[in-house]
Amino acid sequence: xxxxxxxxxxxxxxxxxxxxxxxxxxxxxxxxxxxxxxxxxxxxxxxxxxxxxxxxxxxxxxxxxxxxxxxxxxxxxxxxxxxxxxxxxxxxxxxxxxxxxxxxxxxxxxxxxxxxxxxxxxxxxxxxxxxxxxxxxxxxxxxxxxxxxxxxxxxxxxxxxxxxxxxxxxxxxxxxxxxxxxxxxxxxxxxxxxxxxxxxxxxxxxxxxxxxxxxxxxxxxxxxxxxxxxxxxxxxxxxxxxxxxxxxxxxxxxxxxxxxxxxxxxxxxxxxxxxxxxxxx
Length: 281
Ligand code: GLP
Prior knowledge:
By secondary structure, the chain is α/β, with parallel strands linked by helices. It has a single domain, classed as Rossmann fold. Helices cover 35% and strands 15% of the residues. Helix 1 packs across helix 2 (40-53). 2-amino-2-deoxy-6-O-phosphono-alpha-D-glucopyranose binds at residues 34-38, 65-66, 134-136, 142-143, 163.
């Protein structure tokens, strides 16, 4: 597990964008896209690189993490529409290359079928190369709320009151926030080749600490990433502020800087070399 300490929200986006750009350079790439405010700096930076340096997503396929049950995919509050307006519509990713769970039909059988189809579709694409993640204040990733099985696959989940309250800002009132979703499971996320979680702000500090330094537990779904062979937490100062071993992560980062393994501001070295040869994982 790598903990990357960034100086600002924008820097978290630049770091994650570099990971994606490095992977795209290697060839056709399957991206896992997250909604929410956490990945927005990444999307801003990727759009900037697309416009200014020609970074191309034409060979990419993308899968969203989750979707509300009962919203039409055209509904601007659906996660499919959100990911399009935040990112996909601004780059050259083919519209048909964007996949999201089919969750508009609230019938339980249809939703279970859609969940199984989504898993097959990800497998048919060869799995996810880089999975972007945000984190909820209660430690959820995707919509895997506390108590989610660490082995779970894409399925129907009920949202907690806390998550519905946090997302109420996108709806008329609390009561119109959907209460169900389809979400990739923790097992699905653990199958990605590289899981990249971004967290910014003090409201995420406790969840980040529990995920990185707490026990692996269904009570904090993001702690499942401790089982991932290649997980990177990219944090701004406020999100990192509750980490007990902050001194150690800073020490590791300083060593990586000394070795020339830190990508930002050091164009000769890519994130790939950082991930493969830095002094600690
Ligand atoms: C929602 C999404 C998650 C996201 C979380 C945090 O619940 N399903 O994928 O990580 O919100 O959102 P934000 O990044 O806006 O804090």
